[in-house]
Each structure stands twice: as C-alpha cells, then as structure tokens.
Specification:
The chain is an alpha+beta fold and 258 residues long. The chain has one domain: 4-Layer Sandwich (CNF1/YfiH-like putative cysteine hydrolases). A 6-stranded mixed β-sheet has the order 1-2-3-15-7-4. It has a 6-stranded mixed β-sheet with strand order 5-6-9-8-10-14. A 3-stranded antiparallel β-sheet has the order 11-13-12.
Length: 258
C-alpha cells in the first residue's frame, strides 16, 4: 500500500488498484475530540454528530466523490451482499449487510472498521467494484467469497480478472480468540493450519484474519491479492482499534468508487 495525503488527512491505497479511486483512511485529519480523535467516521460510538459529518465531508473531498451518491450499510457481522446499491435520501445506510457490489460509475461505497478486516475488490475488465467488512463471524461464513460470487454471478466477472485488497485490521499476533472461534474456523475451512496459532505459554488461540480471508478469496478463484499487513491494535496512532482501545474509540473508513 502507498500512503497518500490530502490537506491533513492521510489514507492508504492498494498498489494494484491504480485504475479505481479508493482509500483506507487513517484516524488523522479530522475534528473529533478524544477518545475519537480525530477522523472518526462512526456515527454510533458516542461522538459529536456534527464532528462526524465534518469528517465525512473531508473524506469525500479527499477522493473527489459526491456525498449525495454515497452508499453505506448498517454492518451486522453477517454475509448479506447488497447489489446495485442506491443512496436513501435522509438516511446514512441503505440496508443491514456487510458487503456491497456495483458497476455504476460515481457511486461511492463506504464501510467502517476498528479491527475487522476491510476487503476491497475491483474487476477492471467488467468495471465492477465491491467492498466487504470481515470480522471473525463474517470470515468463517465466507463474506469474502460470497462477495466474489456476487460479482461473478450477477455482473459476469471472471475471478482471474478481479483484484483484491485486504486492508489494515487486527493482526495474527494480537487477535486472541475463544475456542468457539477455533471450532467455527475449522468447520468452514476444513482445518486451522496457517489460520490459528497457539501461544506456547498457555495454549491460547490466535486467529489470522488476513490469512483466512486470503484463503477464502483464493478458493473463490482470486489470483491477485494484496494484503496491507498492518495491525490496527499495534498501530493505534494511525488506526482505530476496538480491542486495543478497550471499546472507547472511533471507526476508520474504506471508500471505493468507479
């Protein structure tokens, strides 16, 4: 990924997404006060609503997108994929879902994160984009591959044409999980090799969200996968981390638009 700047904002872009406007925004350059400082884009975390709206205006200005065309969802840690999203006047979200796909130019797709995994998708041949939100529940239910299947099934994309980007999220050294997550991981992927590691001191389990989502994408036929490899919990100076900041934090956003 490459770090970009616009005024005081900083955001990262995938190297393989050079043909599409997008950004995974850091927490820098906004107006929110602590503990949400500064570019908080979460409307339900307790921040001042006016500050959040100003933060959104700055994000949209950085990428040059039209605010009245933005589509976002109420993220519920599921596997629902919205196709051909359209903004709802007077409402900040269009559906309860964890992924969106569109082939409409100028239709920005926006989702928010604070340890869960941003997944961005782009087919430069069919000119289709997608975005997904993958926590552990979404990961072990295949939100990544379901989004790819939506692109192939409803938009005619070929998996070998699709570029995937796995953005900053809680990393494999920090994401300690319970045994129910281990069981769910094994049930979906068939085993846990390379996905779950055990701490030598107490045998506690750690889930690798990056590897798990990359495996899900590869099984869906995706060959071009770029992983940021940035742990939000280790880099709270740049990104919000729900676990690293004990729940008192904001949300950063990923944006993609044809």
């Amino acid at each position: 990924m490459q770090r970009q700047h616009h005024n005081h904002l900083a955001y990262d872009q995938f190297d393989s997404f050079s043909q599409v406007r997008h950004g995974v925004f850091t927490r820098h350059g906004g107006v929110s006060a602590a503990p949400y400082g500064a570019l908080n884009l979460g409307r339900t975390v307790g921040d001042d609503p006016e500050a959040v709206e100003e933060n959104y205006r700055r994000v949209y200005a950085a990428l040059g997108v039209e605010a009245d065309r933005v589509c976002s969802v109420w993220q519920v840690h599921g596997v629902e994929v919205v196709t051909q999203p359209q903004p709802v006047p007077g409402q900040s979200w269009i559906a309860q879902a964890d992924a969106m796909v569109t082939d409409q130019p100028g239709m920005p797709l926006v989702m928010r994160y604070a340890d869960c995994t941003p997944i961005l998708l782009h087919d430069p041949v069919m000119r289709v984009i997608g975005i997904a939100h993958a926590g552990w529940r979404g990961t072990v239910q295949g939100i990544a591959s379901r989004t790819v299947q939506t692109m192939t099934g409803q938009y005619g994309c070929q998996p070998h044409d699709i570029r995937a980007g796995i953005g900053p999220s809680i990393g494999p050294d920090c994401y300690q999980v319970g045994e129910e997550v281990v069981t769910a991981t094994e049930a979906y992927f068939g085993d846990t090799d390379g996905l779950i590691r055990r701490h030598p001191a107490d045998n506690s389990a750690y889930l690798d969200l990056w590897a798990a989502n990359a495996l899900d994408l590869r099984r869906a036929g995706i060959q071009h996968i770029e992983t940021a490899g940035i742990c939000t919990m280790k880099h709270t100076q740049d990104f919000y981390s729900h676990r690293g900041e004990h729940g008192q934090t904001g949300r950063f956003a990923a944006v993609i638009v044809l």
